[in-house]
TrEMBL record:
Sorted UniProt keywords: Germination, Lipoprotein, Membrane, Palmitate, Signal
Membrane topology: Lipid-anchor
Annotated source species: Paenibacillus radicis
Domain Spore germination protein N-terminal: 27-203
Name of the protein described by the UniProt record: Ger(X)C family spore germination protein
Main location: membrane
Lineage of producing organism: Bacteria, Bacillati, Bacillota, Bacilli, Bacillales
Domain Spore germination GerAC-like C-terminal: 223-387
Amino acid sequence: MLRKRTTGVGLLLALWCLLILTGCWSRVEINDRAFVTAIYVDRLEDGDYELSIGFPLPNRIASGGGSSTGLGSSGGGGGNPYTIVTKKAESIAIALRLIRSDLSREISWGHCRVIVVGRKMAESGVNPILEFVAREPNFHTKSYFMVAPNRAREISYLTPVFERLPAEVLREFAKRKVTLDTSIKDFLESAATDGDTAAAMLTIGDTEMLSEKGKKSTWVGTDGAAIFRKDKMIGTFDVKEMRAWLWLKGKMRNAMISLKSPTDGKTISFIILSSKAAVHPVVQGGKIRFNISVEAEDDIMSSESNIDLTNPEQILKVQNMLSRQLKGRIQHAIRKSQNMGADVFGFGRLLNWNYPNVWKEHEEQWLTTYKKVEFNVDAKVNVKRTGTEKNPIIRQFHR
């Protein structure tokens, strides 16, 4: 009898569970979603914000799309497999509301991996976009943050020759480490500590493209870096200085560097296989010093010189030249950041981690102190392989 009663109670509980399992009340079907791939934010002359959002067009992606120039059109067939929707308003939130009112689908942020801000927006302060992103629970804070040389919206016009969508081109720049891979997370962490940071700087232009039947189309590439003090852009790094940032972060790899041969001044090119960096703060006698050690392994990619690559003494000379070149570039980038008064390399955070009491003494005036900090840079580059061709082919013809 007890067993039957227990079974009856179990059935009632099971039925009750079925009744309350009505599904996810807030679910949005995939066919009702508009997936964001990139956000472009500009600050206009009148103080308003211009928000542009990139979306893929699933119906055109399935059919292969058409020409990839310009913006996506609203007509059927032969158009781009993406579109950009733009609105301007007194705030980013209001501009977003205006965009939503024009869409037939619900915006989904889960696929957005790139945020581009215009130069004026960067110089006036990026806190509004950081505030918006931080409060949106479905937004990935690992999305890459980049700065346009003029207006961010212009970047959305790029022709994605090798990729399907413009956002994929920008994302690959950061993933391949051809520029800085600064993310929203980096900016939020910097803001939490009143720190400084650097973000990728883009460049833009028009050129005739064979893939577009010789028509002039918009191309976008990488430039240097935008330097931010707190949330405002205060200056820039050129490409060599930006690459020094990659060296100090241990992110420089699969890149090419060149130098003039010690024998005849002709070019020898190397490809960087790997790199690593170590930064150690030292406090002695009330003075702050940072010891920086950078190591890299290179392969010789090509040589126009008559240098004998089988001679260990010549290889040692080349290694020393590469090491001096690397040391000089890092020192130059650090000095420039000191002159700017922007600790974009995060040395203050390392000091706080290793010497918290010392940091408390200098925290309030750290940027002033930073300008006087001493840096000892030790760079060591090893040429791992000289390639299967030990000497340039042209040298064999002159034997």
